Each structure stands twice: as structure tokens, then as C-alpha cells.
Amino acid sequence: MRWRASGNTRRSALRLLARPALLRPLEALETHGVRYVVIGGIAAIAQGYPLTTHDLDVTPDRNTENLERLARALRDLGVRLRVARGPAVEFPMDASFLGEAASWTFETNEGLSFDVLFEPAGTAGYSDLAQDAVALDLGEGLVAKVASLRDLIRMKQAAGRPKDLAQIPALLATLEEARARGE
User: For residue 125, which of 77, 158, 96 has the smallest C-alpha distance?
Assistant: First the structure.
């Protein structure tokens, strides 16, 4: 079910028009009625974080029906599985197989890295993140649930990698700016 802009929907700080490839996977998820939350760099940028990114990360609901919808969306996108060495490889999109892994790293036909993480560090997955997610208009009429800045900070802290920990001060500053704007 596609999210519609409403009085509770904020316009995102994200400017995806320069990279419409970032919207296509989300459009496919919406078209197929996949329940998901956008996480990672896109979620932070959408809320004003001064970061650049060239990939997309989502956390979908792991229930059987949603996995079926996710598999259909991924097939429609023609994603391939990213591997450590070499080009991405074709991959059979089977819903039950998708749900058995903690995460998947895909590449779209346009070369976009598109990652699916069922339980990002420090979270219990979709149901946990959806509670505090924010519906944002990401541009071109696409409204999606985006992980809250608080949840993004929690994920970075739990991951504990130097690159994640280095982003926490700017995420905290972005959170304070959002609070000052009444968001």
C-alpha cells in the first residue's frame, strides 16, 4: 500500500531528483505493498543530516506475506546479488529463502547498492523501527517510512564500527536541530 501525503507527512530534506535511481527501489516496494522502513544514509539525509550516500538500505517486515511481496518487488527490479569479488550475480528471489538470512546485499540494473537488513544492529527489526519511524515525502510524490534519528543513532552505537561512531556527533546535532524546528 502506497503511503499518501497527509497532514502528518513532512517534506524530506532529501533531494533525490539528481539521482532518481535511489527512488526506483522504493517505488517498487511501494507498488508491491511491501512494509519497510528506510534506514542508513538515506534516512539520515532525509532528516537533514549533511551526508552523501550512493546506496539505499531498508528493513522490511519479515512476515510471510510481506516476504512474498518483497520477492516480487526485487524480481521486478531485476536486482542481482553483490559478491565480495567480481560482478553481481543473478539470484533466485524466493520469499522463504530471503527470510532466512539476516541481510542481503543487492545491486540494481542501474548499479545502485540496495541492501535489505532484517535486524539492523541494536534493533529488533521492522516492528521496532516502525514504532518511531517518520513518514516523509522523499520527492516525486513518494512517501515512505524513514527510521527516526534516535533509531539511526541507536543503530550506529550498537554497530560500534569506527565509521559509524564517527557519524554520531553529526547525527546528534541533526536531532537537536530537528527538535528546535519542532519535529
Answer: 158
